[in-house]
Amino acid sequence: MSKLGIIIIAFFCLRTDWLGEAEYLIDQTDERATLSNTIKLKEKGGQTAIMEYGLDDVEKLSVHYDYGNVMDMESNFYSKDGLIFSEFTVGQDVLIYKRELQPSEPYASLIESKIYFKSETYGLKKTRKINIHESDNIAELKLKLKDKEFKIDTLGSTDYQRMTDKYNRIKRKTQQE
User: Fold this and answer.
1) Are 163 and 63 in contact (CB under 8 A)?
2) What span, in angstroms and rounded, lies between the C-alpha atoms of 50 and 59?
3) Is the pLDDT of residue 7 over 70?
4) What is the pLDDT of the chain when averaged over all its residues?
């Protein structure tokens, strides 16, 4: 086998290794973590629920936005040793138009996003989404979304900083209550 072939195989094995470890930590945290804090914030048009969990040295911050037909999203952040290594987001988010919505246009999207960071400078983002129209059956669209392939992008330090900023905004809300 050529040196290039060995390098390519090693690259994919190493990449899969850290991703597999992240998924294992997420599964273990989801199954065994202990709830340590819950905050419910009622705001105009809906509410936000924030829950903090812990398992050994892994922390999970879960936030659920429930704003009726406008937005129904859940995001989960996972961190270990100061690194936020994953953010999972799933739900329905309204589409905003600068003009009046036309009958043939979608009013929202179903979104599933999985972000993984190996370090503060390298990560992967897996996303899939389906647009929602007025006449659509949401339950059927959720099933279609699960069958859809993920679009995969690589992420860098700017993306990590954005995710960290979002995490810190949510975390501050738990400390204010």
Assistant:
1) no
2) 13
3) no
4) 89
CB distance 58 to 28 below 8 Å: yes
Q: List all residues 6 or more positions away from 112 whose beta carbon is below 8 Å from its beta carbon.
A: 89, 90, 127, 128, 129, 145
CB 153 within 8 A of CB 116: no
Q: Please report the pLDDT score of residue 142 as a whole number.
A: 92
SS3 88: strand
Work out whether the CA dihedral 28, 29, 30, 33 comes out positive or negative. Answer: positive
Distance CA 47, CA 58 (A): 27
**Distance (Å, whole) CA 128 – CA 150:** 5
Segment 160-166 mean pLDDT:
97
Structure tokens, 142: 């959720």
Determine what percent of the chain is predicted with pLDDT higher than 90: 70
Q: List, in order, residues 6 or more apart from 42 with CB less than 8 Å away.
A: none
Segment 138-167 shows an average pLDDT of 96
Q: How far is residue 75's CA from residue 171's CA, in Å, rounded to a whole number?
A: 13
Report field, pTM of the whole predicted structure over 0.90: no
> Are the beta carbons of 92 and 130 closer than 8 angstroms?
no
pLDDT at 138 exceeding the cut of 80: yes
> Which two three-digit tokens encode residue 122?
């390298």
